[in-house]
């Protein structure tokens, strides 16, 4: 039986600094009998030599495209447009199951090449709770950026930093103390957001399911900053609309969209139609107010975010290496992929015997 293998690819997005595996955890995989190959990267927050020192093989950036179909290709964010047909098992955040732009094309690439998308968003336990997530750090960074913006201390372009440096910037240098509302406060992202607000010496208002069943508009509009950390599983009426930032009858001026479901049926903010960026983190809204909607917030704290994520993912990678898709958690991930393809009208019946769609 061949030695199980994981190929950690380099991220192609220029502002992505995170890694799904730290060097220490990659070393733990090799000691568990799983061969780990790590691509060179110009942006990863951990030096490539640190992986080599712990027993990982080193490969050129982009070499994953020639990997063996039985090898697991591990990454975080979107794949490049080529190759057109994906033949391996890929572990990443595919963002392809919630009607996002480009979802159909990505699923078709996997089906056409005979590969499998093992989407990290579908890595859940028996109760349906996700077992690996960057949510806490997304909430922490999103809330911190919102407070800095309120204090007029957010100076783009943004750059990766450490939690210590970010916390130091949250020491209030002004008498202004915003009223901050965190929606989704009991979730991972919400807890991270509340911790950042508290670090700034501000006690946030915390709303979760009970408070959002019927929105108290007057209470919502009495806040200066709203941090949206709700991960909706079904479409619903918007929690916030342009009228809630109307200067004539609302105090609310700034929304930090941590969830970033822009362009999907699950977007609970009817405020903006695009995400923002490290270069331009703040979007001014036509009717007044501003939105911060950066879709890779944890990469601004790449070491802390990667370390937390890698520790949670490690035991599941061990099981994937040893048991493949027969492991119950990974079997659920594979089932979610099949269901998404069927829902999108892309099924195995469309695949030719060569493994390529006509």
Automatic annotation (TrEMBL):
<dbReference type="InterPro" id="IPR027281">
    <property type="entry name" value="Lys1"/>
</dbReference>
<feature type="binding site">
    <location>
        <begin position="294"/>
        <end position="297"/>
    </location>
    <ligand>
        <name>NAD(+)</name>
    </ligand>
</feature>
<dbReference type="Pfam" id="PF05222">
    <property type="entry name" value="AlaDh_PNT_N"/>
</dbReference>
<feature type="active site" description="Proton acceptor">
    <location>
        <position position="77"/>
    </location>
</feature>
<protein>
    <submittedName>
        <fullName>Saccharopine dehydrogenase</fullName>
    </submittedName>
</protein>
<dbReference type="GO" id="GO:0005737">
    <property type="term" value="C:cytoplasm"/>
</dbReference>
<feature type="binding site">
    <location>
        <position position="258"/>
    </location>
    <ligand>
        <name>NAD(+)</name>
    </ligand>
</feature>
<feature type="compositionally biased region" description="Basic and acidic residues">
    <location>
        <begin position="8"/>
        <end position="19"/>
    </location>
</feature>
<feature type="binding site">
    <location>
        <position position="129"/>
    </location>
    <ligand>
        <name>NAD(+)</name>
    </ligand>
</feature>
<feature type="active site" description="Proton donor">
    <location>
        <position position="95"/>
    </location>
</feature>
<keyword id="KW-0520">NAD</keyword>
<feature type="binding site">
    <location>
        <begin position="187"/>
        <end position="188"/>
    </location>
    <ligand>
        <name>NAD(+)</name>
    </ligand>
</feature>
<dbReference type="InterPro" id="IPR051168">
    <property type="entry name" value="AASS"/>
</dbReference>
<dbReference type="GO" id="GO:0019878">
    <property type="term" value="P:lysine biosynthetic process via aminoadipic acid"/>
</dbReference>
<keyword id="KW-0560">Oxidoreductase</keyword>
<feature type="region of interest" description="Disordered">
    <location>
        <begin position="1"/>
        <end position="26"/>
    </location>
</feature>
<comment type="similarity">
    <text>Belongs to the AlaDH/PNT family.</text>
</comment>
<dbReference type="InterPro" id="IPR036291">
    <property type="entry name" value="NAD(P)-bd_dom_sf"/>
</dbReference>
<feature type="binding site">
    <location>
        <position position="212"/>
    </location>
    <ligand>
        <name>NAD(+)</name>
    </ligand>
</feature>
<dbReference type="InterPro" id="IPR007886">
    <property type="entry name" value="AlaDH/PNT_N"/>
</dbReference>
<feature type="binding site">
    <location>
        <position position="208"/>
    </location>
    <ligand>
        <name>NAD(+)</name>
    </ligand>
</feature>
<feature type="domain" description="Alanine dehydrogenase/pyridine nucleotide transhydrogenase N-terminal">
    <location>
        <begin position="7"/>
        <end position="141"/>
    </location>
</feature>
<dbReference type="GO" id="GO:0004754">
    <property type="term" value="F:saccharopine dehydrogenase (NAD+, L-lysine-forming) activity"/>
</dbReference>
